[in-house]
Amino acid sequence: MSRPPIYNAFMRMTPNHHSHGYWRTPEGSIQYRYNELQAYIDVAKTLERGFVDAMFLADVVGVYDLDYSHPSVAIRAGSEFPGPDPLSAISALGYATENLGFAVTSNIIQTHPFSFARQIGTLDTFTGGRVAWNIVTSYLSNGFRNYGYGDIAAHADRYAWAQEYVDVVYKLLEHSWEDGAVLHDAELDSFLDASKIHTIDHKGERYTVQGPHLVEPGPLRTPVLFQAGMSPDGRSFAVKNAEVTFLASVTPQAAKADIAALDEQSRAAGRDPRSLKKIVQLSYIVGSTEEEATRKREYYRENIDITALQAFSSGAYGIDFNAVDPETPLAEINKMATTGDHMRSILQAAIDANVGDGEQLTWREYLLDHALLPGRIAATPERIADDIQEWVEAGVEGFNVIPTTTLGYWDDWVDQVVPVLQRRGLAQTEYEPGTLRQKLFRQGDRLPAAHRARAIGLG
Ligand SMILES: Cc1cc2nc3c(=O)[nH]c(=O)nc-3n(C[C@H](O)[C@H](O)[C@H](O)COP(=O)(O)O)c2cc1C
């Protein structure tokens, strides 16, 4: 059964996620609360009031510009620093809500897969099946150094590493415990049926894991699997593993072509393309009139810290931007040297699509409205709904909504935009009962039997 588009609130537990420097304004100062659990509980309740599908929690495990020996920029500006651990918040957020999903990012370098399977399996149970895992390979050199890996691993190696990592997690979550392993049978003197709980005996390139998995399976077993990979290796990984994937597409036309290519790749891999949801990230400044929206946009742009954004982009794209003149044409940026091991493909997609509709954007303009975004639009709820409609008509199945402030934005979204979307059939008006997988796919709690996680077995 089809459903209206998916909406996730794109968040990070940090002072500045996408709006670097805006914390200095009275409106942005709400970000002082980035470290308060209650602030995220408040957002979760607001999202649930608007039938938003999930809170999407991004995460990185390093500082952004350490490569270029001036880490003080990102640290001074609070640019994705500090960063409390999002996984630690999910139990509380789940307890405070009934239907909202939590798509949490955890990368392959930060936790051993045995521990991660234990953590996410516990959260599956404690939230009643409302967790998703955003699988990322990590792109910050400082992150790799924090875990003793010397420097960022080469791009292709990261995806091979990620495949082994997820395979270990699949074996633990899907195969270590058979259905029916829990007995609670005093007469048999068996809390559990030991014959149905297995070691996994994984021996691979990086990991050797005996098992069994330490956690009784939750309703999902494997969390809903999110992944964003724009490169050919990233795409192959998505087709093998993800249930929800992000497109790099900057326009609905580009999305249409990207979806067709991805669907073809899925079919070639023997996968039903409908089992992989394609979503994009969009960013809106909401105004009750066009004038108000424009005014808010100008105010917003005036208060962005370009120096901090340059430092942030340096870490993300693996290019030292700190000495780059912000008035440099975007096309020139493309020629700058990089190893290609960072998030270059996101910048590339924007340049290829000539963001700004043919006008020659400068690096400053790109940073203000497009850095890691398909473009920030200031508009009334009606015009935002028009925009969303275009993406939906292009075949896009959902959206990560990027706020201006991660904490303060959501009342505007829920009170002003959601009702318009609902009137147009572009947003759900109630939650489907059940787990996050059932809510998103309407096909049960478990992964389809053909999914790699189920098919892999313990052999
Ligand atoms: C919506 C979205 C969210 C992302 N969230 C994270 C994140 O939280 N942490 C992270 O390390 N990478 C994150 N990424 C980056 C991806 O994991 C990946 O590095 C990027 O899409 C480039 O893919 P590629 O290496 O296949 O080109 C995100 C990407 C997108 C599009």
Summed up:
The protein has 459 residues and is α/β, with parallel strands linked by helices.
CATH topology: TIM Barrel
Large-scale geometry? globular
Task: Give the integer mean of the pLDDT values.
Answer: 93
Number of discrete domains: 1
Which strand order do you get reading across the main beta sheet?
Answer: 1-2-3-4-9-10-11-13
Can you describe what's shown?
The chain has 459 residues and is α/β, with parallel strands linked by helices. The chain has a single domain (6-290, 375-455), classed as TIM Barrel, CATH 3.20.20. It has 17 helices and 13 strands. The strands form 3 sheets. It has an 8-stranded parallel barrel with strand order 1-2-3-4-9-10-11-13, surrounded by 5 helices. The longest helix has 21 residues, at 155-175. It is globular and about 75 Å long. The model has no long low-confidence stretch (mean pLDDT 93). The site of flavin mononucleotide has 20 residues, from β3, β4 and α12.
Write the layout of secondary structure elements.
Layout: E1 6-11, H1 37-49, E2 54-57, H2 72-77, H3 90-95, E3 101-107, H4 113-126, E4 131-136, H5 141-146, H6 155-175, E5 182-185, E6 190-192, E7 202-203, E8 208-209, E9 224-227, H7 232-241, E10 244-246, H8 252-268, E11 277-286, H9 290-302, H10 306-317, H11 330-333, H12 344-352, H13 363-369, E12 376-379, H14 381-393, E13 398-402, H15 410-423, H16 436-441, H17 452-455
Parallel strand pairs: 1-2, 1-13, 2-3, 3-4, 4-9, 9-10, 10-11, 11-12, 11-13
Antiparallel strand pairs: 5-6, 7-8
Helix pairs in contact: 4-6, 6-7, 14-15
The protein binds flavin mononucleotide (FMN).
